[in-house]
Specification:
- The structure is a single chain.
- The chain is an alpha+beta fold and about 110 residues long.
- It has one domain.
- It is about 45% helix and about 20% strand.
- The protein is built from four helices and four strands.
- Keywords: Membrane, Transmembrane, Transmembrane helix.
């Protein structure tokens, strides 16, 4: 077997393993209000083994997938739940990606 074929197989296997074992969670940037501090947003790479979460997701995407209205209150409740679940599973935190956020929400940009 040639080296390029074996390298291709190894890269493919690594990508499949990454897809099934890891996930990408998007935290949308927030504006500062009188009671909270602004958050610049983040793209979080995490271990998703054992979690029933899509490969690419966000708080707003999870809310809209569950047929609830995305607003400040539902976002805060979902953020609290997700933060508790992902706290020990974070691999890497990267800058916010609007492109990935739009993929997680089906192209809808929720402005709350």
């Amino acid at each position: 077997m040639s080296q390029s074929v074996s390298t291709s197989i190894m890269v493919f296997a690594a990508l499949v393993l990454f897809y099934f074992c890891c996930g990408i969670f998007l935290v949308k940037p927030t504006r500062a209000t009188t009671t909270q501090v602004a958050h610049p947003g983040a793209t979080i790479l995490y271990f998703r083994a054992g979690l029933a979460m899509p490969f690419i997701t966000s708080t707003d995407g999870m809310i809209s997938d569950s047929d609830r209205t995305v607003n400040t209150f539902t976002r805060a409740a979902m953020d609290t739940t997700v933060n508790a679940v992902l706290e020990s599973k974070v691999i890497l935190e990267l800058p916010y990606s609007k492109w990935l956020y739009l993929r997680s929400t089906g192209g809808v940009d929720y402005m709350y």
